[in-house]
Structure formats: structure tokens, C-alpha cells
Design goal:
The chain is of the alpha/beta class. It contains ten helices and five strands; from the N terminus they run H-H-H-E-H-E-H-E-H-H-H-H-H-E-E. The protein has one domain: 3-Layer(aba) Sandwich (Beta-carbonic Anhydrase, Chain A), CATH 3.40.1050.10.
Length: 228
């Protein structure tokens, strides 16, 4: 049986716990509201700045956020990025659960299924921003640049890159060919979205959607906007 002398301590502990829980809930609500009110791109770039400076706040990861997204989701941006294990959008943009709708393939290549997924986010989830994100020293792009034989379905990735007019325009003598091909691959992804999807074109025309390109630097951890 609990001694009477411990009751005040228990009450104090409960009071602190409740106040802390309410505070976390309010912080979470504030974070969500700021994402809605601010320009989505600004939110992402501010998050990347925190990440690059090793000062992430890890928003939208508490129990209240987890419970709030069980019934529905409201991501504020689509990130089309490489599957590379070093390029995790939620980490490099310092975002949390339910914030980003991510499409990840080797070389951030956009196929029909990926395009349909993006259209779903734009049409049904009302996402206002798409970022096509390449990254420094991309292995898929490097395999294309180096040439040679590729086994299995990895060949499909290389063949997809070979067909991109933006990449084909990069001369073989370019001393920065790998990085320039990474950037060209981002440009190609943006062109795909704007030419192959009537849904996306309509949203852009109505000024309800913005598409930008970016390059993530593995060394300094920063995202550089390269388009538009």
C-alpha cells in the first residue's frame, strides 16, 4: 500500500507529466500549422539547414502525431529521390511522420507507377510542391557514365538513363560529367512530370502546384536548388 508521505510526490509527478504532454501536443500542433502557413519549399529548406548544421528538431514524431495520422494523411510535399541509403528525405529535410510523400527509385527515375503515385498525391492529397532530388555521386548515374555491362534488371535503369535527352546532351569530354549528368537527370524528371501528366500540368496552370529540382551534397549535407 502506498505510504501517505509519497502521495504529494506522486501528485507532483503526474502534474509535471500532464503539463509536459500538453506542451508536446501544442508544439506538434504549432509545427503542423507552420507547415501549412509557410511556403512548403521554405519549410523544407529551413529543415535542411538545421540538418546540415547538426541541429535537427525532429518534428512530428511524438505519440500525438502518430495518433493524428492514423485515419488520414496530409503531406505538404512530394519528394522524388534516389533509393540511395544516404539520401533519406525525412532526415535531410528534418521532417517527420506524415509530412512528406516520397517516391524513391535508383537514380530517382520516374516510371509509370511512380508517376501515378505522384498524381495521387497531387490530385487526392492536394500536395502543393514536388521536388525532384538528385544527389552527389549517384551510383545509378555513375554506372551509366562508366558504361560496361550491367546484370539483370539493373540494365533497365541504365537503359532509362540512356534515353534521356538532357543526359545525352552532356559531352563525354566534360570533366564534371558525372555531376552534370546528375543535374541533367533532375531536369529530365521535371520535364517528364510536366509533359507526361495532364493532372500535373493542370495543377501548375492553375498555380496550385510547383515543381523544383534539387541536388543533395553528400559532403556538406546541403540541398542546392537547381531548377527553376
Amino acid at each position: 500500500m502506498l505510504s501517505f508521505r509519497f502521495i504529494p510526490l506522486v501528485k507532483a509527478f503526474l502534474a509535471v507529466f500532464i503539463l509536459s504532454s500538453v506542451s508536446c501536443s501544442r508544439m506538434n500542433e504549432k509545427s503542423n500549422q507552420e507547415s501549412v502557413e509557410k511556403d512548403p519549399l521554405q519549410v523544407l529548406m529551413e529543415g535542411n539547414k538545421r540538418f546540415a548544421e547538426m541541429k535537427p528538431v525532429h518534428p512530428d514524431e511524438d505519440i500525438y502525431r502518430l495518433r493524428s495520422v492514423t485515419k488520414e494523411q496530409h503531406p505538404f510535399a512530394v519528394i522524388v529521390s534516389c533509393s540511395d541509403s544516404r539520401v533519406s528525405p525525412e532526415l535531410i529535410f528534418d521532417q517527420g511522420i506524415g509530412d512528406l510523400f516520397t517516391i524513391r527509385t535508383a537514380g530517382n527515375i520516374i516510371g509509370n507507377v511512380g508517376l501515378g503515385s505522384i498524381e495521387y498525391a497531387v490530385e487526392h492529397l492536394q500536395v502543393k510542391l514536388i521536388i525532384v532530388l538528385g544527389h552527389e555521386r549517384c551510383g545509378a548515374v555513375d554506372a551509366f557514365v562508366q558504361g560496361g555491362k550491367t546484370p539483370g534488371h539493373i540494365r533497365d535503369i541504365i537503359d532509362s538513363l540512356k534515353q534521356e535527352m538532357e543526359i545525352k546532351a552532356i559531352p563525354y569530354t566534360d570533366p564534371e560529367r558525372l555531376d552534370d549528368c546528375v543535374r541533367a537527370n533532375v531536369e529530365h524528371g521535371i520535364r517528364q512530370l510536366t509533359t507526361q501528366s495532364a493532372i500535373i500540368r493542370e495543377k501548375i496552370h492553375e498555380k496550385e502546384l510547383r515543381i523544383v529540382g534539387g541536388r543533395y551534397d553528400l559532403d556538406n549535407l546541403k540541398v542546392e536548388l537547381i531548377h527553376p
